[in-house]
Amino acid sequence: MPLDTGTMTDPGEPTGTNATLQSPISQDGRPIIGQRYEVAARQGRAVRVNAGQTIRVINTHGTQVCDFWAFAENDLHEFLSMEHLHSQLETVMPRVGQSLCTNRRRPILHFTTDTSPGVHDTVIAACDIHRYHSLGVKDYHDNCTDNLRMALIAIGLRALEIPAPLNLWMNIPINAEGGIDWCPTVSKPGDYVDMTAEMDCIAVMSACPQDIVPINGPDSTPVELHFEIH
Amino acid sequence: MPLDTGTMTDPGEPTGTNATLQSPISQDGRPIIGQRYEVAARQGRAVRVNAGQTIRVINTHGTQVCDFWAFAENDLHEFLSMEHLHSQLETVMPRVGQSLCTNRRRPILHFTTDTSPGVHDTVIAACDIHRYHSLGVKDYHDNCTDNLRMALIAIGLRALEIPAPLNLWMNIPINAEGGIDWCPTVSKPGDYVDMTAEMDCIAVMSACPQDIVPINGPDSTPVELHFEIH
To answer: What is the pLDDT of residues B157-174, one digit of tens each?
Structure first.
């Protein structure tokens, strides 16, 4: 009996567009080592990181959330996975010194440095067009899920799945009853995290365009981030 | 430029096998209304649930964790999503009266009844062969991820992605620092949850075969579960 996979949508197809699509750091996402790249406000960027190289993600203004993903370079079905990380590290709050694992429980990034207070989120989905529609937006709104899709397309790839992101600097306290809150970042301008690749991978960052729920600083103004590969 | 999707593995391919593959409730997963079906210990079962029908999942012995998934019947890329549920419900602990949403933020199941104390997990990945290997198992070990894959194959479908599960009765407290613990269930024999489908969907249950980490009661003995469609 042939196996039915249903009437499929394409997880890699953006629901709208922004300048992410025309703004890769290079045609194939290979970086110049040591160069500082911008993730423009409300946009996404993808970069190839070889095993042993370190990606530094910089919260230039201190107030910006960075939705972050990492995919195995040779198989986009393997990726940094929050639910597997929770199990492997026995925490929802990864710390410097820990290895972050994929959905096959292989280490993909070693979390080596964090100059911020270490508040990052691992339980909340990337924003998407459906999120903004539920918040009352009528038309297209930039969103991290489309930024991921477009950042990959911009370097000639296509998302096969949309993993839960590592939300750098996103401040989502979980209370004793399991309730969560949406709070501004507690990082300062120039704070950065360093993560060293444990396999060849593709990192994707989105400067979260959330301007309704106050996660991006008290003013809810999305701004740019930067990153470097060392 | 053609878009590269990498050297793909198949997320729907089991890494081993058990009787799940030969034990569907019916050839296409359609249930007999009101009939009580077994999810055998260490195995998985899939069932089609039409919009308006209610699935009752029964913790027959009280000590068993049930990894639970729901997929939109017409598109297996849309599914009950823990990270989207966290965002929409602003909690990691869903409660009776709430609608559980998909990765497109559409309601898929309304959580209508829970006779247990309401302790369920939404942050931990389904166990998989890699998990058991990391726990020291050398050979194949039944696991919830393969049970999901096989339960779908048994009714003629194939998983396109492996979503994070709703782990019914799994007791994973999260402390103030974000640390998690692995604890036995707090449910009693015969406890059940009812969820009413808000779209035509395919529910999959796995009677978690975890027998090393003590989540399945103090004896860590995996046992059977039951379910009914009303």
So the answer is: 999 999 999 999 999 999
How many Å lie between the alpha carbon of A175 and the closest alpha carbon of chain B?
Answer: 7
Enumerate the H helices of B59-210 as residue ranges.
82-89, 129-134, 144-154
A183 CB-near residues (< 8 Å, 6+ apart): A171, A172, A173, A214, A215
For CA atoms B44, B48, B51, B57, the dihedral sign is: negative
CA distances from A36 to A46, A138, A155, A165 (A): 14, 36, 18, 23
Most A CBs within 10 Å, among B87, B133, B153, to test the A interface:
B87
Q: What is the pLDDT of residues A125-183, one digit of tens each?
A: 999 999 999 999 999 999 999 999 999 999 999 999 999 999 999 999 999 999 999 99
| Residues sharing a CB contact under 8 Å with residue B163, sequence separation 6 or more, in sequence order | B69, B79, B80, B81, B82, B103
State whether residue B10 is helix, strand or coil.
Answer: coil
- Burial code (b: 16+ CB inside 10 Å, e: under 16) for A8-47 equals eeebbebeeebebbebbbeeebebeeeeebbbbbbbbbbb
Name the residue with tokens 């469609």. B229
Question: What is the pTM assigned to this prediction?
Answer: 0.96
Decide if pLDDT at A10 tops 70. yes
Structure-token match 């070693």, residue found: A110
The gap from C-alpha A66 to its chain's centroid, in whole angstroms, comes to 6
Contacts of A68 in chain B (CB under 8 A): none
The SS3 call for residue B67 is strand
Cα–Cα dist A191/A7, whole Å: 45
Quote the pLDDT of residue A31. Answer: 98
